[in-house]
């Protein structure tokens, strides 16, 4: 394998050699720390029978490590200026494919069929571009791709929201969506000094382990998520008020009764409700035809 990319010296050399200039609009902050890479790769539980999908390989700091840990690595990079650099940096790595494209526009089912037919499981491992973290993760989850783990570096506050339990101010519709599909765990927090250039926010590595089936059984996922969104629409309002706005004023009384019959106090706030409680509400609302 080639020399480690993720050191300040080597990263600066590569950038100078190719005359690369960072695009802030693409969330380009390259990792230059070996320990953080060790933590990310270890959390992904890879071996030679497993595949890794990397989103945004940059100049290949993580890609190189994944190539050593997994049986197949596929990396999707949007910036065409990085494609020749990646080709050079990864020249000695076997079973590694770089695809030029926007992960949000790619047909990932097809990509999985083409790239990962021969592995026993696939995980997403990435240092994500922060401007599109949530759309990327929601795409991965909603398309129900056959994933084992998603281990990603993201903005620290977003990681905290994903892993938040009911009752605190971090808990919201993102927490519910992530925890519906996955078991989240914050692996480590990361100072901004381990990137070139340094981002102006703190970061964290989060591991999302995909559940075999969703955390709660709901008759209609779309409806469940709409109820969750509505419950958090105005965070300082009670559940009864937020849900009345969703079902219509004329149903206020019936809604209150429905909540009470589900053992849910209508004056609670959305942020105190568990996934099980949201699922109960969604089911009852559907039964009432709301
Ligand atoms: N993996 C590298 C590292 O850790 O040093 C680079 C990480 S950097 C935070 C994010 C990378 O994602 C950049 O290389 C950027 O060009 C790429 N990127 C941004 N938006 C993307 C998209 N929609 N699809 C694929 N790659 C994207």
Automatic annotation (TrEMBL):
Per UniProt, S-adenosyl-L-methionine binds at 29, 31, 56, 77, 102, 127
Q: What is its main location?
A: cytoplasm
**In what residue span(s) does the Ribosomal RNA adenine methylase transferase N-terminal domain sit?**
36-212
What PROSITE patterns is this protein classified in?
RRNA_A_DIMETH (PS01131), SAM_RNA_A_N6_MT (PS51689)
InterPro entries hit by this protein: KsgA/Erm, rRNA_Ade_diMease-like_C, rRNA_Ade_Mease_Trfase_CS, rRNA_Ade_methylase_Trfase_N, rRNA_adenine_dimethylase, SAM-dependent_MTases_sf
User: Which branch of life, at top level?
Assistant: Bacteria
Q: Where in or outside the cell?
A: Cytoplasm
Which of UniProt's keywords are assigned here? Cytoplasm, Methyltransferase, RNA-binding, rRNA processing, S-adenosyl-L-methionine, Transferase
Entry's Gene Ontology molecular function annotations: 16S rRNA (adenine(1518)-N(6)/adenine(1519)-N(6))-dimethyltransferase activity; RNA binding
Q: Which reaction(s) does the protein catalyse, per the Swiss-Prot or TrEMBL entry?
A: adenosine(1518)/adenosine(1519) in 16S rRNA + 4 S-adenosyl-L-methionine = N(6)-dimethyladenosine(1518)/N(6)-dimethyladenosine(1519) in 16S rRNA + 4 S-adenosyl-L-homocysteine + 4 H(+)
The family assignment reads:
Belongs to the class I-like SAM-binding methyltransferase superfamily. rRNA adenine N(6)-methyltransferase family. RsmA subfamily.
Q: What does this protein do?
A: Specifically dimethylates two adjacent adenosines (A1518 and A1519) in the loop of a conserved hairpin near the 3'-end of 16S rRNA in the 30S particle. May play a critical role in biogenesis of 30S subunits.
Entries under PANTHER family matching the protein? DIMETHYLADENOSINE TRANSFERASE, DIMETHYLADENOSINE TRANSFERASE-RELATED
Identification of the protein by name: Ribosomal RNA small subunit methyltransferase A
Q: Identify the species of origin.
A: Paenibacillus endophyticus
Gene name of this polypeptide: rsmA
């Amino acid at each position: 394998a080639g020399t480690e990319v993720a050191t300040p010296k080597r990263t600066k050399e590569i950038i100078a050699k190719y005359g690369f200039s960072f695009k802030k609009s693409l969330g380009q902050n390259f990792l230059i720390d070996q320990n953080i890479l060790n933590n990310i790769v270890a959390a992904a539980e890879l071996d030679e029978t497993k595949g890794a999908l990397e989103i945004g390989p940059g100049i290949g700091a993580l890609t190189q490590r994944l190539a050593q840990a997994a049986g197949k690595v596929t990396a999707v990079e949007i910036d065409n200026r990085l494609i020749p650099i990646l080709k050079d940096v990864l020249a000695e790595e076997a079973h590694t494919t770089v695809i030029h494209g926007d992960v949000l526009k790619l047909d990932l089912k097809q990509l999985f069929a083409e790239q990962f037919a021969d592995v026993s499981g696939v995980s997403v491992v990435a240092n994500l571009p922060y401007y599109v973290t949530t759309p990327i993760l929601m795409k991965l989850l909603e398309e129900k791709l056959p994933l084992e783990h998603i281990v990603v570096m993201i903005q620290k506050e977003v990681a905290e929201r994903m892993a938040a339990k009911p009752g605190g101010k971090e808990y919201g519709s993102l927490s519910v969506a992530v925890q519906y599909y996955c078991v989240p765990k914050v692996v480590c927090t990361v100072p901004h000094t381990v990137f070139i250039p340094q981002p102006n926010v703190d970061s964290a590595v989060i591991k999302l382990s995909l559940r075999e089936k969703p955390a709660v059984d709901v008759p209609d996922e779309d409806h469940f998520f709409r109820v969750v969104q509505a419950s958090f629409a105005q965070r300082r309002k009670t559940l009864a008020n937020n849900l009345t706005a969703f079902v219509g004023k004329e149903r206020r009384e019936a809604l209150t009764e429905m909540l009470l019959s589900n053992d849910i106090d209508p004056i609670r706030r959305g942020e105190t409700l568990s996934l099980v409680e949201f699922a109960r509400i969604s089911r009852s609302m559907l039964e009432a035809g709301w």
